[in-house]
Amino acid sequence: MKNTPLDTELLLLFKALHETRSLTLAAGRLGMSQAAASRALSKLRDIFNDNLFIKSGYGMLATPRAETLFPLVLNSLASLEQLMTPEKFDPALLARVFRVGASDNGVFTIISRVLNDLFSQAPHAQLDIAPINDDLYTCLKDGRMDLAIHPVLPLPPDFHEYLLFEARYACIVRKCHPLAHYAEKGQAPPLDEINRYRRMQISVQQAGKPRYVIDDVAFLSPPTQEVAVWVPYFLAAPLILAETDLILTLPRHTAARFIEMAPLVMFPCPEPPNTFFTRLVWHHRVHHDPAIQWLRSLFVKHVADRPSRDQRSGVGWR
After folding, report:
1. CB of 251 within 8 A of CB of 234?
2. pLDDT band at 36, cuts 50/70/90?
3. Helix/strand/coil for 121
4. How far, in whole angstroms, is CA 134 from its chain's centroid?
5. Which of 9, 36, 245, 292 pairs as cysteine with 32 (C-beta 3.0–4.6 A)?
6. What dihedral angle (degrees, nearest 10) is formed by the CA atoms of 21, 22, 27, 29?
């Protein structure tokens, strides 16, 4: 056998010749001209160093070598067909660890909505939630993370994103706070009244250094009242607020969850705040992965374009 490329077209011609015993019929079956079929047969003969099919009064007869090769050709074609057939994805058969990057706020307000559907459809899957650091893009690129939930800036090349929802900011205080009556009316207190009280500040940490401070990104001009407490975790805030007269600014959908957890109320920010988009981010490496496509679909189903809890509960201010 010569070291000549053996492509699918040649294998299909071999199969058609064996089954039809006619070069004309084989060419017609494959949509080839008879001249092209004749050239292909010559290649086959050259590759296998055998006539393979010879003319006779009854058409073309297969040589012993062709008879030996025929089941091997069928197996090769079947393997190629299987290779080209799209994989049938069934989440129930998944035994995979999904790795998702998120802050504690992302776990609390976003991932929690997806978990029930994820594990009911894929009961053998596992979820590994990792903190987001400066190496986020490297983690996504090299496979340490499959997806991340993050209000990122413009992405590097080869990354994809899905905008889950647009987030706004709110202020929260304890129910008996002197400013709590503004929450009942859905009004923002005057800035001078807010500035009488010290703030709690969420300062997301990274390697001991602040990565961003919520008040600095929430407002066009940050409030001027003094910061009393910095916390590096969203979930540390509700119990501290419930015991003090501090004021906290945070994403409104998170504020709505916090007032369900502790005796807190929320009211609009004292000046029109900035907004941001919460995004699902992934690298092109997993863009066509059926399991990751399925996981992304759960976030779209349960999170994207959904009203926040405060909207569903009837709080109408924006």
Report:
1. no
2. very high
3. helix
4. 19
5. 36
6. -60
Eight-state DSSP code of residue 49: T
DSSP 285: G
State residue 308's pLDDT score.
Answer: 42
The length of the chain is 318
List C-alpha distances in Å: 6 to 3, 84, 247.
9, 17, 74
77, pLDDT greater than 90:
no
Sign of the torsion angle spanned by Cα atoms 224, 227, 233, 238: negative
> CA-CA distance, 305 to 308, in Å (whole number)?
9
Six token digits for residue 48: 């296998």
**315, exposed or middle or buried, with CB in 10 Å at 0-12, 13-18, 19+?**
buried
Residue 291: is its pLDDT beyond 90? yes
Q: Which two tokens stand for residue 179?
A: 């400013």
Residue with tokens 């559907």: 117
Per residue in 238-261, pLDDT tens?
989 999 999 998 888 888 888 988
Gap between the Cα atoms of 30 and 14, Å rounded: 11
- 12 contacts 30 by C-beta, under 8 angstroms: yes
pLDDT tens-digit map of 120-141: 999 999 999 998 888 889 999 9
**Token duo for residue 121:** 């459809």
What DSSP element (H or E) covers 231? strand 227-231
SS (H, E, C) 155-169: CCCCEEEEEEEEECE
Q: Identify the pLDDT of residue 87.
A: 66
Lowest mean pLDDT among 84-88, 104-108, 131-135, 241-245: 84-88
Give the pair of three-digit tokens for residue 166.
Answer: 């647009």
